[in-house]
């Protein structure tokens, strides 16, 4: 049942990104790219995790606003959506492959 729901969500996101790429990039992909990107960046930094996560959590709204601005002002409608999807997938791969910090 869970795979069916996940499949429906993925198909809906693909369809909505094809129909309205700027709207989907603004509402969905900017937030997911921000969250996954900040998480991957925090795991890749060679510093102690607690202060790094504090500064990255403070930077999250700024990164999200940058992605929102990119989604609305880019001349080509599909470029921000595809860029944010690629960043989300790459960041998810980094988070998935990293060992859990002790």
Blueprint of the fold:
Elements: H1 2-19, H2 21-44, H3 49-73, H4 78-97
Helix pairs in contact: 1-2, 2-3, 2-4
Describe it for me?
With 102 residues, this protein is mainly α. The protein is built from four helices and no strands. It has helices spanning 2-19, 21-44, 49-73, 78-97. It is globular, with a radius of gyration of 15 Å. It starts with a helix and ends in a 5-residue tail after the last helix.
Tally of alpha and pi helices: 4
Shape: globular
Element order, helices and strands?
Answer: HHHH
Largest sheet: none
Radius of gyration: 15 Å
| Strand percentage | under 5%
For the terminal residues, how far apart are their CA atoms? 34 Å
What's the count of strands?
A: 0
The whole-number mean of residue pLDDT values reads 88
Given as residue ranges, the uncertain stretches (5+ residues, pLDDT < 50) are none
Fraction of residues in helices?
over 70%
Short précis:
The protein has 102 residues and is an all-alpha fold. It has four helices and no strands.
